Amino acid sequence: MPTDYIRNGVLYVTENYLCFESSKSGSSKRNKVIKLTDITDIQKYKVLSVLPGSGMGIAVSTPSTQKPLVFGAMVHRDEAFETIFNQYVKITSASSSSES
Description:
Blueprint: E1 4-6, E2 9-13, E3 17-22, E4 32-35, E5 41-46, E6 56-61, E7 69-71, H1 77-99
Parallel strand pairs: 1-7
Antiparallel strand pairs: 2-3, 3-4, 5-6, 6-7
Protein name: GRAM domain-containing protein
Organism: Buteo japonicus
InterPro entries: GRAM, GRAMDC4, GRAMDC4_PH-GRAM, PH-like_dom_sf
């Protein structure tokens, strides 16, 4: 699966957003803010076994991305995935309850 690979930064999860801040100076193009309700798919992703954290990442798809965004080289990928996924479920179930 072709991806847009993102690394070298900090991934934040807020109540409504997934935010990535690039640690490279002058690379504001790589900063990302994704509404959790816009996520159409989220999954654990194995990039390469030679990267930190055994090359583990998280792939996120949205309607506005042509290919999944992969946040890679994550040392604590499983914990990050659980946090993102739990908040995603919480916010999407809350928004679907308010629509009924």
